[in-house]
Specification:
mainly alpha, 4 helices, 0% strand, elongated
């Protein structure tokens, strides 16, 4: 009975295989952070969502329910969108 061929554990073929495996299992990067010290969490979250929406990034998000119900989130989103849209 023939045995299965063994993959090399050193050399270029092994490195190429590892690169393929790693690139096919990319983890979504963490959400961006901004220096918004002193602001309430809802304002910070809204600002980040608004700014990322203005930049058309993968983190673009507008929580419409929260926009209607949370004035701090809404203020942060509008501020973030307006400021980042100008850049």
């Amino acid at each position: 009975m023939a045995t299965a061929p063994q993959l090399p554990t050193t050399g270029p073929r092994w490195a190429l295989s590892l690169r393929r495996v790693c690139s096919s299992h990319r983890v979504k990067a963490t959400r961006p952070t901004y220096n918004l010290a002193g602001y309430p969490p809802a304002v910070k979250e809204g600002y980040i969502d608004g700014c990322e929406t203005a930049k058309h990034s993968q983190y673009a998000h507008k929580d419409t329910k929260r926009m209607a119900e949370d004035p701090q989130y809404s203020m942060g989103w509008n501020d973030g969108f307006g400021i980042c849209k100008k850049k």
